[in-house]
Design goal:
Layout (H helix, E strand, L loop, with lengths): L7 E6 L6 H10 L3 E5 L5 H18 L4 E5 L14 E4 L4 E5 L9 E3 L3 H6 L5 E4 L4 E9 L2 E8 L1 E4 L4 E2 L12 H13 L3 E4 L5 H11 L4 E6 L2 H5 L1 H7 L2 E5 H7 L5 H15 L3 E4 L14 H12 L4 E4 L1 H4 L4 H16 L4 H7 L8 H16 L3 E5 L4 H8 L6 E5 L2 H6 L6 E5 L6 H14 L8 E7 L8 E8 L2 H10 L1
Parallel strand pairs: 1-2, 1-16, 2-3, 3-12, 5-6, 12-13, 13-14, 14-15, 15-16, 17-18, 17-20, 18-19
Antiparallel strand pairs: 4-10, 5-9, 7-8, 7-11, 8-9, 20-21
């Protein structure tokens, strides 16, 4: 099933999309990767969803990516004597380690690590920023604050600390258990929530040991400040705009989104733009004009993928939401300005053989108006480096590894086909032409460019490119084999 767009779509599964029939409809509508949110999913349910996705994969013959999103550490207040209290601007409010029920002057904060991380002048945001406190005095078991923005405080509301680096791991005991279960189930991507530093990703990578790729969710200012370091160790980024909009001024989020998108592309790593992209489609069959522009902006910027959350997980119109996102992407990528914007954002190739080959392949493909760029890739690195260049022709990635195909499902412009490895260079070129024809990317009389690493099957050894003419025999061979 060939997509008529380069940007990919990530759809979150939930109450309205947790059966095989609906997953099949979402895939047919345009979903390339399915997200399972472990904040709302048990391990047993996660296994059932993975089995359903793999069944759709077998039916369609297309690699489908599965992203398991770990909950991450949740910082919350304790309880209140009456269930809730009201605090006013200018009030003094204390957060302490006393587990007694709170009142209008104090509340229990069951997180010793927060006491160790906050300093005078730091902000604390309660209930997604509805109440804002400023620390006036920080002690080992007591934080005194001034209420800057008053409102209602109630049981177990979330606490955010935009100014403080909290000394805890991004992986809670629940996350570690969920991570092991996901790895045993054979998923493709792990999303890490509320990371603050590159060490958080390194910790997860020690556990995954290559069994899944790591996607760093950037949702805290501390992670934005260390973005370059995080990019060095992560496999992909997610612009988690919801929490970013809580922990930093809303007007800064669009700039951070652009910074992250361009930085990830320069590094040759996928970036997913997420949260509230078609939010109104939770209850409406059509989005707002502003939401359409939001999705279009992410695609104009060259994001690898755009993501639906509640729209596909709990909304009334999950299939329509995916189809709408699909249409927006197709329209944007056909816009006369799209190519000039994408080309203007190209980063200088890194001084490696793989980047030199990918850059040359893009130039040749664009100059000669070739039908497709066909990459032989065992580990996926050749496909990633080629996608970094954003060539005009589509990228067809051929891999003997189904895991590689599934991971590349989130990467811009890459259509992955799982096939046995080439036996020699002639087989490499001939089969590239045949598969490009079968998948609808090339016709007899057109030319493709083949990119690979020699010797064959050597990960990261992209060192060969060859222009190949698609003859009638490719069409005949494919009609026989199919």
């Amino acid at each position: 099933m060939r997509r008529l767009r380069r940007a990919k779509i990530v759809a979150t599964l939930g109450p309205v999309s947790s059966n095989a029939a609906m997953i099949g409809k979402l895939f047919a509508a345009g979903a390339d990767v399915f997200r399972i949110n472990m904040s709302h999913t048990s391990q047993d349910r996660m296994r059932e969803l993975v089995a359903m996705i793999r069944a759709v994969e077998r039916e369609t013959g297309r690699p489908i990516g599965i992203l398991v999103d770990l909950q991450g550490p949740k910082l919350r207040l304790g309880t209140f004597a009456g269930g809730s209290v009201q605090v006013k601007n200018g009030d003094t409010f204390v957060l302490d380690s006393n587990p007694a029920a709170g009142d209008a002057s104090r509340a229990f904060l069951p997180h010793p690590e927060i006491f160790a991380g906050v300093e005078t002048g730091h902000s604390l945001l309660i209930d997604d920023g509805k109440v804002r406190l400023t620390v006036t005095e920080a002690q080992p078991k007591r934080i005194t604050t001034r209420v800057e923005v008053g409102g209602k405080l109630s049981d177990r509301k979330g606490v955010s600390l935009p100014d403080s680096t909290i000394p805890f791991s991004a992986l809670t005991d629940k996350d570690l258990s969920d991570l092991e279960a996901a790895l045993e189930t054979g998923i493709d991507w792990i999303a890490l929530s509320f990371i603050q530093r590159p060490e958080d990703i390194a910790e997860a990578k020690k556990i995954t040991r290559g069994r899944a790729a790591i996607m760093a969710k950037i949702e805290k200012p501390q992670a934005v400040h260390r973005l370059a370091e995080i990019l060095e160790v992560t496999d992909a980024l997610m612009v988690a705009r919801g929490d970013l909009g809580v922990e930093m001024p809303l007007e800064k989020v669009p700039g951070v989104q652009k910074q992250m998108t361009r930085s990830a592309r320069a590094a040759g790593k996928p970036v997913v733009v997420a949260t509230q992209m078609l939010e109104s489609m939770i209850a409406s069959p059509v989005p707002t004009r502003a939401e359409v522009s939001d999705v279009a902006t992410a695609i104009f910027e060259g994001a690898d993928a755009v993501m639906l959350s509640a729209e596909s997980a709990a909304g009334q119109y999950p299939v329509e939401a995916v189809a709408t996102m699909n249409r927006i992407a197709e329209e944007v990528e056909g816009d006369p300005l799209f190519r000039s914007i994408i080309d203007s954002q190209r980063a200088t190739p890194e001084a490696t053989g793989a980047d030199a080959i990918a850059d040359a392949a893009r130039n040749i493909a664009d100059t000669l108006d070739l039908a497709a760029v066909v990459c032989w890739t065992s580990s996926g690195s050749t496909g990633l480096r080629m996608a970094r260049e954003r060539p005009r022709p589509p990228i067809v990635a051929l891999s003997p590894n189904i895991a590689t195909g599934r991971r590349l499902a989130v990467v811009w412009g890459v259509h992955c086909v799982v096939t046995e490895d080439a036996h020699d260079q002639d087989d490499m070129v001939n089969r590239a032409c045949r598969i490009a024809c079968k998948e609808g990317f090339a016709k007899a009389g057109q030319r493709v460019i083949v990119v690979a690493g020699v010797p064959l099957g050597t990960p990261g050894a992209t060192n060969m490119l060859r222009i190949a003419y698609v003859g009638q025999e490719a069409i005949k061979d494919e009609s026989i084999s199919s």
